[in-house]
Each structure stands twice: as C-alpha cells, then as structure tokens.
Amino acid sequence: MKKRVLVATGGGDCPGLNAVIRAIVLRAGQEKNWEVIGSVNAFDGILNEPNEIVVLNEKEVAGIHIRGGTIIGTTNKGGPFAWPIKNPDGSWGSADRSDEMLRRLQYLGVDAVINIGGDGSQQISNKLFEKGCNIIGVPKTIDNDLQATDFTFGFQTAVQEATTAVDKLVTTAASHNRVFVLEVMGRYAGWIGLHSAVAGGAHVCLIPEIPYDINKVMEKIYSRFHHGRGYAIIVVAEGAKPVGGEVYYSKSDEVGYKNPRLGGVAFKLIHELKQAGLETDIRETVLGHLQRGGTPIAYDRILAAQFGAKAFEMVLNQEYGKMVAYRHPNIVSVPFGEVLSAYNFVDPGSDLVTTAKGIGICMGD
Questions:
Q1: Mean pLDDT confidence for 297-320
Q2: Which of 152, 151, 156, 81 lies closest to 118, judged by CA?
Q3: Cβ-contact 122, 323 below 8 angstroms
Q4: Does the annotation mark 143 as catalytic?
Q5: Mind listing the pLDDT tens digit for each residue in 30-83?
Q6: Domains of the chain (ranges plus CATH)?
Q7: What pTM value is reported for the model?
Q8: Contact 144, 237 (CB under 8 A)
C-alpha cells in the first residue's frame, strides 16, 4: 500500500508556489511507494463538506512551474484553529477544529503534511506538530519576513516587479518635473522597499524599521529640483511610519481575516509633505497585488524547486516539526521554534542600508 503526503498552500498567493508543488510531486515520483495529494484552499479542503482533495501526479503538475499563484488554491482566512462560525445573532466567531482535522487526515491515510506558507501558516504548522501531526513547513512570502532563511521564494519576483515600476516612473517623473511616491508591500518589513529602491535608483526609501522625519524627506526632494525643474522618486513600504507615529492601516471586515489591512501610506505621506509646505507636483502609485501575481523569475523557480525537493526528502527522513530554509549555499531544515522565535526585520545597520545611504538614498533619518 502506498504512503501518502498531503500538500497545502496557505496565506497570500506568491510566485513560485506551483514550482514547489511540482518539485514535491517529481521528487516523490522517484520513490515507488508514495503518492501526493493536495488540499484545496489551504486546510479548508480537508475541513469542508464534502472534502476537496485533489490527486497531484506528474501529469497534473506538468509545466506549472512557470505559472503564478497555486493550482490548489489558497486562503488567508480562518484555518483549523480559528474556523469561522456564524452565531445565532448573525455575528461571526471562530471554533477550533484542529482535532477534527487530524482525525480526517488519519481517515484519508495521510502519513505526512507539507504546509507551504508564511508566518501565519507556519504558526499553524507548529501547533499541528505539537498535536502530533507529521508536518513539515516550506517558507513562502513575498515579504521575506520569515526568520531562519536567507530568502523566501517569491521575494525576488516581487522586487523585480517593484523595480520595473520604479524604472517606469523615472521617465514620467522626469518628463513632468514631478515627485512620484511608489507604495510597495512588505507589511512590517522593508525588504521589498529597500531592494527595489537600490535597484531602481530611487531618491528616498522609507521602510518600517527606520521611522522617517518628514523634514529630512523634504530636504532630499528640494535637493533634486533647481529653478523648478527636476524630479524625485520615493519608494515607501506599506508599514513605514513617521518618527513618533504609527503604521497606517484599517481593520478588515472580511470574515475570518484577522490581520490589520495595511495600505494607503502613499496618500498619507503626500498629505504630510503638503502639510510641510511642499508645492511641487506630486503623484502616487500603489503597486498592490501586482507584486504577488504573475510568472516567477528564474531565481524563485530554482529556489522553489530546491525547497520542494528538500521538503519531500525531509518526509522520507521523518524530519517533522521543521521548516525548509535557505542558508547560502545550502538548503537546510530548521525547527519551527527557531523559525517563529523572531520576525525578520531589516537591520538599520546592515550593509544594504549602508549602501543605500552611500549612494545618496535618503532613508528618512
């Protein structure tokens, strides 16, 4: 009788997810006694009635490594520990269905689980492991905010999209003598903002880890204009905040979505600049989900393939309770406890921040 590994993709979609799925299936195909199945929309596929489980074989994954998103779907709402439940009064609450899910996994004959996701998904992985689930994590996030791995797949593709946006804004900004503010994703980490600002040649880069002084930003903008002519590009990460200020966010009304909804900092920054006296023509561009969609670049396809193959080898070696990680030049396994021990922030004293300042980028401090 064949053994069975279940694959789930959770959290936000990300370029490279399909490449990981494909690598797991192809690596499992090298073993004659294993088969791979997928849970549709993270763990919802197991908990839904009826179950939504798909067979993942070489035919199903052929060519998917060049596609963005995930063929088995994903969700960043609910989950086995916080399943949305509608109360009699019409309000929404949540229920812990993790024990039920483990029973369903056993019924399905699942010997091991590979959970592909970011911080929230790996917190779920850790809780399931503590309950006795044979589970392995694969790090996925464009934000690059997971501890214990040098990079997460999807990050470099997001940086490429953001850099392309900076490149395009330069030409229109120079043509109209304007200031452009480009808002990028990243939540509480400034990795996308910092990398795309350096790559694209932005003049100001504002990230969550370095609270900005609006007067410093003003000084940099003024230095870019002479007799009313010039231009400036500002890259601002969605979690950036002024000195003494707070992250700009709203509360989502989506059922089961508990995270603060970041976004809108570009508009807030423009308001602050105008309040400080900036009279130069200024426009905003919010890149949004364009960073998360589309075809993964070669770097992310390769990293995703390495992660997928390693994840299945960890199943073979029964290295449960761990996550795949990239520590140059090796692909290794790291215990969930180490992965979740800290958030992967940009170090304000890091070489790349020093480089950014050294080539004249204002970091707001």
A1: 98
A2: 152
A3: yes
A4: yes
A5: 998 999 999 999 999 999 999 999 999 999 999 999 999 999 999 988 899 999
A6: 3-153+296-328 (3.40.50.450), 158-292+347-358 (3.40.50.460)
A7: 0.93
A8: no
